[in-house]
Amino acid sequence: MPKVSTKGNSMPSSPIRKLVPFAEIAKKQGRKIYHLNIGQPDIETPEIMLNAIKNADIKVLEYSHSAGIESYREKLAGYYATFNINIDKNDIIITTGGSEAISIAMMTCFNQGDEIIIPEPFYANYNGFSAAADVKIVPVKSYIETGFALPPISEFEKLITSKTKGIMICNPGNPTGYLYSREELESLKELVIKYDLFLLSDEVYREFCYDGKEYVSVMHLKGVDNNVILLDSISKRYSACGARIGALISKNKEVMATAMKFAQARLSPPTFGQIGAEAALKTPKEYFDKVQKEYVERRDFVIEALNKMDGVFCPKPSGAFYCIARLPIDNADKFCQWLLESFVYEGQTVMLAPATGFYSTPGAGINEVRLAYVLNKEALKMAMICLDQALKVYPGKTN
Amino acid sequence: MPKVSTKGNSMPSSPIRKLVPFAEIAKKQGRKIYHLNIGQPDIETPEIMLNAIKNADIKVLEYSHSAGIESYREKLAGYYATFNINIDKNDIIITTGGSEAISIAMMTCFNQGDEIIIPEPFYANYNGFSAAADVKIVPVKSYIETGFALPPISEFEKLITSKTKGIMICNPGNPTGYLYSREELESLKELVIKYDLFLLSDEVYREFCYDGKEYVSVMHLKGVDNNVILLDSISKRYSACGARIGALISKNKEVMATAMKFAQARLSPPTFGQIGAEAALKTPKEYFDKVQKEYVERRDFVIEALNKMDGVFCPKPSGAFYCIARLPIDNADKFCQWLLESFVYEGQTVMLAPATGFYSTPGAGINEVRLAYVLNKEALKMAMICLDQALKVYPGKTN
How is B114-147 classified by DSSP, letter by letter? Predict the structure, then answer.
């Protein structure tokens, strides 16, 4: 029997996925589970987007252009202009979700064994894409005490070797919710210039910046057009994860020409998703205002509830819809499994993501969990009561 | 300025793509172009599929399961059963087009530098996927004189090294239209058993088998369940290339578990495409009968017209909707470019795919072109007249 590849064997399986069978058993036992474990928003997709798909007049469902439907790319450039990001349609390749944008960017920029420095905790699937591209992620640790601010540039510099080829960030951050300041991004700019590195930035949560704080894109940085690659997705901003539409954006012509070869090999991104995405560009401002208000309320409630619990610490994030909390527990993987296997409060429990899956450094995040506040306030209220009760009785409690 | 990867640099650009700018100029000049160069069918997508998408009652466009919507996979197993392929939903991972199925299969099965033997001419995008996966394609030559029948197994064996890890075929074949016989597949079976190889089979044209000839799948072969991987797509059978829905199918549990890790990293295939694909399973038999009748008529017309032209030879294919013709020309790349740049007949010209892009051996296919008979008969008639006229005046004519 032929053996699978070593690359396949080295593909990581995240701690969240290991919990899924336990969640299935809990469900079969009739327990209600509050899912704070994944970033699948409950917000309705804009009607203007869904209607465009319903009303599409298609006789032959053809391939689109490999870079995406031209009219969509043109209008999408207009969307970015509203964020003061000045690009044209030729700087954009439409991808099958943000996932494919990351995957193509990695294959375009990095050789086997090249190193890419990423502040940890980071989005767990970066591990999968880097394993597939044979790229080595070198984590630089950020800390819950500072709300996961950018580590000092000196910490990055300590990690730079002859193999270092890029830096990757997520801003606003999944899983931290941290929003990088202009100063932090300017310091990254100096770093990538100094060492001639690519700067990849996953900015899929740009619509989710709170408290009037400024969203600064890597595309706003001056003089690093050839270093910067923006990775994007419509999944979160229009609550349209199933559309599978993202984008890879860069002013670096060589990067775009190379990325295009990968895009051509896979023929085209999904047509219906693109039709919806093009229409979604007309989503009224009120939609985002309402969504943002909702998330701010959820965040404020969750953060306050968490910090009121005995021994719990959770910094207040300024973006996205995640937070990482430190809990008074021995082991987050065990705790999250115990919540599904052994805990019940009034017929209910809560599913969380162990933060260990977001750290690359062994042992890091062992007493931290990520919560996605993607449920309505009533559900969040019950979820927080459950968690508080669980922490009172968990056998591995540490204080 | 940081440099793109060597992998990116090594990604092939197909000869067809090089022709695109010339086609654009010809169009601007007002010439009508008959596109026989790509496999984008003109056949209408089944209404039952498009209506299911129109009528989908979606409020939140969520991720689907990473392996694809469960009900779709269940029903899809039923579809395969009608072809005497006995699998269940757990043997199927729904992919983003057949492209992703190929890409995930390659990453799942092969290590960097592993060799995969593929009969040439083969689908040009296999080059892109293998470059992305760092796999080396070793071509084994098939010949136009035999209609591109499977090369003798002894020719495969000559190419087997310690690095050989798999064989890949396309059946019915793109670009050849050749349909492998049961004997040919049985001989491949013995080969993969003898050398413990994976056998990847791209069978996206199974609905397009003509003249009552039998479609034999690698899934029909006994005793090689752990070697065989079926790569599939709905693009051709429902004329739904833009849906981007394919499938990776295997009974090898280790392969499926590994492929699933790649599938999870990219989250999910497109939701609307899957909704359409599930509904399309109810496409009435009459649809396929009509389509098949249409393609047989087109094939018969094109093959006869080609073989009537001076110095042209084109074997009659039994499947898919392509044929490869040998022309009395010096160089197919030059000829195809000349058709777009310099030739006009009654305001019209024809766009063909130089066969050089389907061969991996340098110089092979130099006087061959691939034609996709995806236009209606009236258009095909004019296209054949154009080609005949062009061959009479082409400066690089060889007879």
Answer: -EEEEEES--THHHHHHHHTT-EEEEEE--GGGT
